[in-house]
Each structure stands twice: as structure tokens, then as C-alpha cells.
Amino acid sequence: MTPLFDVMAMRPEDWPEVQRIYEEGIATKQATFETSAPSWSVWDKSHVPSCRLVARTPEGQLLGWAALSPISNRCVYAGVAEVSIYVAQSARGQGVGRRLMEALILASEASGFWTLTAGIFPENGPSVRLHLAQGFRLVGYRERVGQMDQGWRDVLLLERRSHRVGWSEAAREPRTSRVSWAVRRATIADAPAIVEYMRRLFSDKSLFLPVVADPFTMTVDDQEAFIARHQDRPNAVMLVADAPDGSIVGMWDAMGSPRRAVRHVVEFGMSVDERFRGQGLGSALLQAGMDWAKNTGLVTRIELEVYAENLPAIALYRKFGFVVEGRKRGAFRHQGRTMDGLLMAHLLDPTGYSTTLESFGSSRQ
């Protein structure tokens, strides 16, 4: 049962419980490089007084705490702070972290902070999901940045930019206006432009796309044949998005099997030109792809495979209703590193799909 609690300002007398919860987090070896909690005097000097919160039950028990630390003493970074959030072991998974984060964001904006940052171990999935759900985005990956127990650890860098603090009215307008992307079906005539797009895509070594590990060798003739295969099947499509200059800057393609038993299932791939990321193009492509699937009268399941560390893509897929159904351990090699793959899927009609499948016939495959 979810405990009753309120989020309120931390008091100096809360420190013993705050320290205990901090030590519980340290013991997991998934929360911080620290090996022990500091004294109150040390902690007090390094955290923002107006942004220290605790989750407290009516009986006075602390379930968690959250606080901010300035990232620099330079005035240019006066509005940037790092988040610390810890939940007692007995209260994890009960919404305490979410409530603390929501309150901390409000407190930070009231104190004039415009950017919140966080460094999280990739293995700390609950913390990553919490931050993404509260508007943080992945901005970097620090590889083998620190040692713990004689082993090197990576750290994900996430940040959240306030939409309330640090924006003039003139500065707000470009951010709130969205590009209206036109997504259309690819034609045979698009083959040269798609080949050029793919060459640009493969040159982006930072891209979390399994195919970029291989050299791009497809010719225009190959691409024409590939487009034609998508046109010949009722459970296949290739969608593209055009830039104002007519170049292709995004793709979404899906293909299913001709076998009757599984032709309702399609697997898709999606990519966006580096120059146009963060402008809603990925959402436009994914929405267009899902609209196509719904209109086929055939497709009821859409699935994909994604790097487990591609957090922005995973967050986008979750936003559109995709769920993780499995993990392929050590499935990919990316820039000399082995990474897991996640299997994600979305059922267009999760309540009636078994009935829908009956309409495909009962012949054995």
C-alpha cells in the first residue's frame, strides 16, 4: 500500500534520517561514486538552502529526500544545479521519488534555477526513468569516467531546461512554435535522395543505429528495388520527410512477413538527419507510421529493437504506447563497446487482438 506522506522543507534535525537514507543508496553501488555520507556541516555547505526537501509521513518518518548542488561558482552558471534524490529502501517504487522530483523542480524555479542536471549510472534504470518522466533529456555519455571496486563505470548525463525561468517573451516564441513536418510515402523516384540521406546517416558515428557499424554500400538500383518491395506488400511501407530544400531528412520503414500466421506483425526502423533532431520530426514520423498501420486493416502489432542505452528513443517510443517486452544481452557492438538491445512493441488493439487474428484464417503455416 502506498504510504501517506507530505513533501516539505528539510530541517537540520532531519539530518540523521537523511544521512541514513543516503547511506542506503550508497550501499546499492548504483546511486553514486561516494563510499560514505558526509557530515552535516560538509553537506550543508554544498547544497542550496532553498532547495532541500524531504518526504515525511504523518508519524514523522522520512521516506526520502531531494536537494540541489550548484555546479559552479561562476556567475554565468548561477542558474544551473545538480539534482540529488534518494528514497529509503522500504519506500522505493511507491511514488516517493516522483513527488520529491516534482516538488524539487518547482522549488528550483522559484529560486531562479533554469537548468537542472543529473549524472546517473546506466544500470540505475529506475532513476533514469524518473528523470525522463519529469522532462529531463539525455545530453551525454561519459565512458569509464570513474572507478568503483576496481572497475570503471560509465555515467549518463541528463538535464532539464526550465520553460519558466531564463526566457524572455521573444526567446520563448521559437521554442514553443513547432515545425509542421510533411511525411509521405517514398516513391521509386526518391531512390537517389534516399541513398544520399543514408550516406549522411552512416557518417554520423554518434548515432545509436545498429546498421551504422557497417559500411554503406547500397546503390540507387538497390534502393529502387528496396522501395518496390515495400510497395508490393500490404503490410509494408516506407515513409520519408522532406526538408524545405527538397532533401530527405527522415525515414520510417516497416515490413511484415507474407506468412498468414504473422502477417499482422510489422517491425520498423526509424532515423532522423542529425541537423533536424529535437524538432519533432521523430514524433511526426512515428505518428505517420502508426496511422498507416491502423489504416491497413491488417496490422495489429508494431515492434522494434533499440539499443538499451538509446534513452531519448526509448522515451519517445514509450510516449507512443510501446512497452519493453524483452532484453537481448550483448546483442550489439557500438564504437568498440558491447550493448544490450531492447525489444519493444505496441498493440494497436490490446483488448481485441485475439479476435482480430481469427479473421486471418486458420490455415497452418
Automatic annotation (TrEMBL):
<dbReference type="Pfam" id="PF00583">
    <property type="entry name" value="Acetyltransf_1"/>
</dbReference>
<feature type="domain" description="N-acetyltransferase">
    <location>
        <begin position="181"/>
        <end position="349"/>
    </location>
</feature>
<keyword id="KW-0808">Transferase</keyword>
<dbReference type="GO" id="GO:0016747">
    <property type="term" value="F:acyltransferase activity, transferring groups other than amino-acyl groups"/>
</dbReference>
<feature type="domain" description="N-acetyltransferase">
    <location>
        <begin position="5"/>
        <end position="159"/>
    </location>
</feature>
<dbReference type="InterPro" id="IPR000182">
    <property type="entry name" value="GNAT_dom"/>
</dbReference>
<dbReference type="InterPro" id="IPR016181">
    <property type="entry name" value="Acyl_CoA_acyltransferase"/>
</dbReference>
<protein>
    <submittedName>
        <fullName>GNAT family N-acetyltransferase</fullName>
    </submittedName>
</protein>
